[in-house]
């Protein structure tokens, strides 16, 4: 039993280290480039916290479900992208790029937040762009 607890604790510690390093890289890592304008971010309402040419972080006062519905409208209805469904892929879109004749992928992950007096945001959206 003690061996199991030690393994579980080591795994939990490793998971925290991995998750923390992932959050740092998702913030853009200090890059001066900007998110591609062809792929809208959920900024109505919303504030871009950080961005690079391949990642962006947006906080919103909209609930996660509302942000997801807005993204579906933007990407599927207005841009004509295809949604890829899968486990651990909350919103994953393939958008045809006529300039390169490839499909670019835009993946969004979400987190629900507790609103604070200093930050009324109730959701965070992390965006990832993969050029096809």
Keywords:
TATA-Binding Protein, alpha+beta, 2 helices, 132 residues, single chain
Give a structural overview.
The chain is globular, with a radius of gyration of 17 Å. It has two domains: 1-26; 31-130, TATA-Binding Protein. Mean pLDDT is 80; it is low at 1-30. The chain has 132 residues and is α+β, with helices and mostly antiparallel strands. Strands 1-2-6-5-4-3 form a six-stranded antiparallel β-sheet, with helices on one face. It has helices at residues 2-26, 64-78; strands at residues 47-51, 55-60, 82-83, 91-97, 102-112, 123-130.
What order do the helices and strands follow? HEEHEEEE
In total, the number of strands is 6
How does the major sheet shape up? Answer: 6 strands, antiparallel
What's the CATH architecture name of the largest domain? 2-Layer Sandwich
Query: What percent of residues are in strands?
Result: 25-35%
Shape field: globular
Question: Could you give the order of strands across the largest sheet?
Answer: 1-2-6-5-4-3
Alpha-carbon distance between the termini? 49 Å
Return Rg in Å: 17 Å
Mean pLDDT: 80
Structural class: alpha+beta
Helix content: 25-40%
How many H/I helices? Answer: 2
Poorly predicted regions: 1-30
CATH topology of the largest domain: TATA-Binding Protein
């Amino acid at each position: 039993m003690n061996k199991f607890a030690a393994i579980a604790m080591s795994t939990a510690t490793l998971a925290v280290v991995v998750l923390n390093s992932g959050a740092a890289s998702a913030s853009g890592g200090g890059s001066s480039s900007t998110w591609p304008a062809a792929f809208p971010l959920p900024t109505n309402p919303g504030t871009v916290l950080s961005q690079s040419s391949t990642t962006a972080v947006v906080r919103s006062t909209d609930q996660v479900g509302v942000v997801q519905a807005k993204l579906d409208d933007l990407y599927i209805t207005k841009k004509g992208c295809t949604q890829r469904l899968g486990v651990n892929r909350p919103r994953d879109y393939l958008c045809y790029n006529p300039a390169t004749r490839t499909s670019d992928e835009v993946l969004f992950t979400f987190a629900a937040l507790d609103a604070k007096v200093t930050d009324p945001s109730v959701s965070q959206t992390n965006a990832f762009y993969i050029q096809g």
